[in-house]
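Thread: Importin-5, structure

OP (GT): Posting the sequence first so everyone is looking at the same thing. Length is 804 residues per the record. Can we get the C-alpha cells written out before standup tomorrow? I want them in the notebook alongside the other entries.
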Amino acid sequence: MAEQQQFYLLLSNLMSPDNTVRKQSEETYDTIPGQTKITFLLQAIRDVSAAEEVKQMAAVLLRRLLSSSFEEVYPSLAIDMQTAIKTELLAGIQSEGSSNIRKKVCDIAAELARNLIDDDGNNQWPEILKFLFDSVNSQDVNLREAALHIFWCKKFHDKVISALLQTMEDQSNPRVQAHAAAALINFTEDCPKTLLIPYLDSLVQHLHVIMVAKLQELIQKGTKLVLEQVVTSIASVADTAEEKFVPYYDLFMPSLKHIVENAVQKELRLLRGKTIECISLIGLAVGKEKFIPDASAVMQLLLKTQTDFNDLEDDDPQISYMISAWARMCKILGKEFQQYLPVVMGPLMKTASIKPEVFVNLGDQQSFGIKTAGLEEKATACQMLVCYAKELKEGFVEYTEQVVKLMVPLLKFYFHDDILHETTITYIPYDLSMPLLLECARVRGPEYLSQMWHFMCDALIKSIGNEPDSDVLSEIMHSFAKCIELMGDGCLNNEHFEELGGILKGKLEEHFKNQEVRQAKRQDEDYDEQVEETLQEEDDNDVYILTKVSDILHSIFSSYREKVLPWFEQLLQLIVNLICPHRPWADRQWGLCIFDDVIEHCSPSSFKYAEYFLRPTMQSLCDTRPEVRQAAAYGIGVMAQFGGENYRPAFTEAVPLLVGVIQSPDSRAKENVNATENCISAVAKVMKYRPECVNVNEILPHWLSWLPLNEDKEEAVHTFSYLCDLIESNNPIVLGPDNTNLPKIFIIIADSVANESIKGEDGCSKRLANVIRQVQVSGGLWTQCVSVLNETQQKAIQDLLNKA
C-alpha cells in the first residue's frame, strides 16, 4: 500500500510545472522495472479513490509502455499476470465512470490487442473480439462507444475486420456467424468512408462468398438467419462506400433481385424486406447512371409487392422496408418517380395515420399506458412523406393538403419523458415537413398557399409553447422560423404575435432560471464529474433552444423589419441580459446575433437600442471565444451597411480592433478562421459604405493581403463584390503601379474558385470573369498573370471563364 501511494506521488510529480521536480521524477520512473510499472500503472487506473489526473497519467504511461516496449516487457510476465491485465482492462472499460479515462483505457486495450494479433490473424486475446462483438451490439451507449473507439484505433481496425470476416466464414456456427455479421454492420455504419476504402475489396469479396453459400443453404435447408445479416452487412458497406461501391454492383444485384422475386413465403418476409432495403441502398450509393438499367425491373418488383400491400398483415416487417425503399427510389429517380405516387401514397398515408392504442388496466392497481407498436413505422412514414415533398416539389402538390391535415395534428402528439426513454421511437420530422409542404403548395397560387399556412400556424405556435421534449421542440421552432421566412410580411396576425411574444419571453426566462439551478447544483456536496456531465448536457440543450429563439426572431425581423420593433420591446431586457459580460459565452454570442438582426433588418431605426448593444459589441470584438468575436464583427459590418448616419462614430473605434484580430498570430487557426473572415468582411463593409470614417487608402493594401476568404462563403461574396468595385473603378492602390498587383489578384480569384468561395452563379463571378477577359486581350500582362499560377489555380481560372 505504501509503495502504491509513493507511486501515485511519483505520477503527480511527473506532471509538476517545476522542471527540476519533473526531471527527477522521470529519472526515478525510468529505473522501475517494466513488470512493476505495469502492475502499479494498472492498479492506479482501476483505483476508484485515485485522483483523475493520476489515473490519466497512469493510462498514458501504460499505453506508451505497451507501444514502445511490448516485446521487452509483456512476454516475460507470468501467464496469470497476462490474463489479469486483459481481464482488468475489459473490466475497466465496462465500469469506469469517467468518459475521459474510459477512452484512455480503450486506447490501452487497442494497443495490447494490436500486439497480440499477429500478421496471419492468429489471436492471443480472443476475449477482446468477443467483447467488441458483444459491446457493439449492446444497449449500453458507453459500451458501444468504447467498442467503436477501440475498433478505430490506428493499426487495429484491419485486424478486427480480418477477424470478423474469419468468424463470419465459420460455417459450423451459424449463430456466431450472425453475431459477427451484426458487429460488422455496426462497425461499418459508424466507419468513416476514408477508413473503409482500403479494406473494401477484401470485405466485398468475403461478403459475396458468404452470401452465395448462405443462399444455397436457404434453398437446400431453409436456414436464413445468417443470410439476413449478410444482406444487411452488404447494404451497410454500400451505404458507407457510396460511389466506391460501383465496381461491385454487378456482383450483388442479380442475386439480390432473385431473392426479392422468389422469397415469397411467409417465413421469409424479413429476409425479403432486408433485401429490398439493400437494393435501394446500393442504388442510392452507386447513383442513377449505374442503377438505371436495373431500375425498371426493381420498380416492377416493388410495385408487385405494393399491389399485394393490402393483403399484408399489419405487423409484416416488409411494410417499413418498402416505405423506406420507395423514398430512396424517389431520391434516385427524381422527377421520374412522380408517376409512381398513385401507387405508393395510399399505403404510406395509411401507415402515417397509425394511432397509438391507449389501454387502462383496472386491477388492484390502476394503470394507464400507450401501446408503442407501429409508432416507429408511423414516424418512418412521415419522414418518407417529407422526402417526397422535398424531391418532387411541385410534383407532389396533389397530395399537399391531405399530408398537411395529417402532419399538423401530430404537433400535439408527444410522449411523457418516461415513455420516450423506454422506447426507440424516431421523431416526426417537424423541422422540414411544414416549410417543404408550403413550397409544394405555392404552385397553386397565393390563396391556396395562405389556406395551408393558416391551417398550420396556430398549431405550430401552440406546440412551441407546449412541447415538453427539447429535441422535438427545437425542430418545431426551426420549422416555424422557416415557414415565416417563406410566407413573409403579413403571415402573422395580432393574436399570433401576442401569443408568440409570451412564449418566447417564457423560453428566455426559463433559460436564465435553468442556469441558476445548475449553478446551485454545482455547490451541492454530491457534485462530481458525472453530475457535471449531466449539467453540461442540460446546458447544451438550453443553448440549442436559445439558437431556435434566435432563428424565430431572425425570420420575424427579416420579414417585418422595423414594424415589429414595438412588439420586440417586451423581450428587449431579456436579450440585453444575454450580452452582459458575466454571462456564458454562448449567451453572449446569441444575444449579439439577435441584435445583429435588429441592426440589419431595422436599418436606422435600430439606433434607438444602441445604448444597450454598442458597447458590448465593441468589447466582444476582442473576446476570447471566436464565436462571440464573429457575432460582434458581423454586427459592425451590418452597422456600416444598413445602420445609417448615427453609427458613424463607432467605426473609428471598431476598425483598429478588427485589424488587431485579423493580424493576431493565430487568426487563421481552424477555430478562429470564421471569426477572422467576418472581421475582414466587416472592414470591407466599413470602407465601402462608410469610407469617410476611415483612411481607406491606408487600409486597402493590408486588406488585399488578407484575401481570399475560404471558409465563410456568405461573407466571401460581400468581400469579392467590393473587390470588383475597386477593380472596375481602376483603384490605383488595388491595381498597383502599372497593374503590378494584378498577378496577386489573379491568385486571389483562382484560390477562391478552387475553394468554391465564389461560384459560377454568383453575380460577382461574372464580374471577376470580365476582369480576367479584359486582361486576356492585353498580351504581356496576361502572360505575366498566368505565369504565377500553379496548375490548380490555372484550372480554376479556366473554370471561371467557362461558367461565368
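GT: Both are above now. Quick notes for whoever picks this up: The first strand starts at residue 357 and ends at 362. The chain is about 75% helix and 0% strand.
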